[in-house]
């Protein structure tokens, strides 16, 4: 079982190093010491602090890229997945990186991982995109893992699925098909000389003699499309348009983005917020071809408080628009809010807080419990079965998330 340095443990728990040192002095979370006197924490300690049940199975980060893209792509995937796991309180036991095509099912590390899944040694596998794990047939492999008690978590970052790699895979498929054309030609000769098939072809008005030409024409057209797609002259705007993940407008009535921010003066991550620290919230609602937005802020609020406030104000606006019973998509970069109000990662935390009288599992008062009460009251007006929550890493590929983040920063600039 892995041990963690103080800095590593602090990042996983989402607190500062000084907070961990204080917990050590208070006996709240005692650090072990090496022979040289250096502090460290065990995985078991972090699991208990995070409330994670350890069943002995491991959590794995899997990254893959082709040789041409490997250097930057693998590092980017690992960074995104590590940030995600740290934000969700997941202890990562192993990071697997592989340089190979998504069409190759003989990847050694990938196959070893599946063998461990089959042996029920793996809890969850984290990937940035479906095609990082398997180019085709992901649904099948996902069901295979579920049958053996494992789960594949797809963070869904489209930037980790390069267009060029898809083009390369398509070229390989076309090449493999082309290599088989002589064999198909020999089959065509047999088919043409088969009297029974000739009669069947006549009766159904089938023109089998054109089969080879049709195949060649289709192959040529496909290769033309691939060549155009990989040509530097291909429209850059078109590439960008295709790379975006577009919302199916028929699926959701509105798309909501919320964000909260806090600027800390002279403090570090996990430290206390000063009364002079600026904080702000913002939301954006895209509905019926229109945009509805609002923002505000105050001094001395935490980042989580502003995330909650943004979410609450968006709910109020949705109620005002008469959308409480409509299918809605929320895109947030706050896992704290998502895990609190949705069942995407298990039972919503807010349910446990309510049962305990708005207290945490350790009996201590819940931070911002009055604000959570307001959110709970507002959510009770919505059809929760029609609400979908989507997490995105902050400051990355989501245009809506970047927009509300910009609104927050502009507001704090004016404070």
Automatic annotation (TrEMBL):
It holds the Pfam family MerR. GO terms for biological process: regulation of DNA-templated transcription. PROSITE patterns: HTH_MERR_2 (PS50937), RNASE_H_1 (PS50879). The lineage of its organism: Bacteria, Bacillati, Bacillota, Bacilli, Lactobacillales. Transmembrane segments: none annotated. SMART domains: Resolvase. GO terms for molecular function: DNA binding; DNA strand exchange activity; RNA-DNA hybrid ribonuclease activity. Signal peptide: none annotated. Residues 250-413 form the RNase H type-1 domain. Residues 3-46 form the HTH merR-type domain. Monomer. SUPFAM superfamilies: Putative DNA-binding domain, Resolvase-like, Ribonuclease H-like. This is IS607 family transposase. InterPro entries: DNA-bd_dom_put_sf (IPR009061), MerR-type_HTH_dom (IPR000551), Recombinase/Transposase-rel (IPR051491), Resolv_N (IPR006119), Resolvase-like_N_sf (IPR036162), RNaseH-like_sf (IPR012337), RNaseH_domain (IPR002156), RNaseH_sf (IPR036397).
């Amino acid at each position: 079982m892995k041990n963690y340095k103080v800095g590593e443990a602090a990042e996983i728990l989402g607190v500062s190093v000084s907070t961990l040192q204080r917990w050590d002095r208070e006996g709240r979370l005692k650090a072990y010491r090496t022979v040289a006197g250096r502090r460290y924490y065990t995985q078991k300690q972090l699991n208990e602090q995070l409330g994670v049940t350890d069943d002995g199975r491991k959590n794995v980060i899997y990254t893959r890229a082709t040789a041409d893209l490997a250097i930057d792509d693998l590092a980017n995937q690992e960074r995104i997945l590590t940030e995600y796991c740290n934000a969700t309180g997941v202890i990562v036991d192993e990071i697997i990186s592989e340089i190979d095509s998504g069409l190759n099912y003989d990847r050694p590390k990938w196959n070893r991982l599946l063998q461990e899944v089959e042996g029920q040694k793996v809890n969850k596998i984290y990937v940035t995109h479906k095609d990082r794990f398997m180019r085709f047939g992901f649904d099948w492999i996902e069901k295979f893992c579920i049958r053996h008690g494992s789960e594949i978590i797809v963070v869904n970052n489209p930037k980790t699925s390069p267009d060029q790699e898809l083009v390369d895979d398509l070229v390989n498929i076309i090449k493999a098909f082309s290599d088989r054309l002589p064999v198909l030609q020999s089959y065509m000769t047999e088919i043409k000389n088969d009297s029974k098939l000739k009669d069947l072809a006549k009766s159904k008005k089938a023109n089998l003699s054109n089969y080879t030409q049709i195949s060649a024409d289709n192959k040529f057209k496909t290769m033309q499309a691939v060549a155009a797609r990989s040509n530097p002259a291909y429209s850059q705007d078109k590439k960008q348009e295709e790379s975006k993940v577009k919302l199916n407008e028929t699926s959701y009535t509105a798309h909501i983005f919320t964000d909260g921010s806090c600027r800390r003066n002279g403090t570090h991550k996990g430290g206390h917020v000063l009364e002079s620290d600026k904080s702000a919230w913002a939301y954006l609602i895209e509905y019926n071809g229109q945009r509805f937005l609002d923002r505000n802020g105050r001094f001395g609020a935490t980042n989580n408080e502003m995330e909650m406030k943004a979410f609450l104000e968006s709910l109020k606006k949705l109620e005002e628009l008469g959308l409480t019973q409509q299918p809605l998509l929320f895109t947030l970069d706050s896992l704290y809010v998502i895990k609190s109000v949705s069942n995407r990662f298990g039972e919503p935390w807010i349910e446990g807080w309510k049962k305990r009288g708005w207290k945490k599992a350790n009996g201590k008062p819940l931070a911002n419990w009055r604000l959570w009460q307001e959110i709970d009251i507002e959510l009770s007006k919505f059809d929760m079965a029609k609400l979908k929550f989507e997490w995105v890493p902050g400051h990355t590929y989501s245009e809506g998330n970047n927009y509300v983040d910009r609104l927050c920063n502009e507001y704090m600039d004016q404070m």
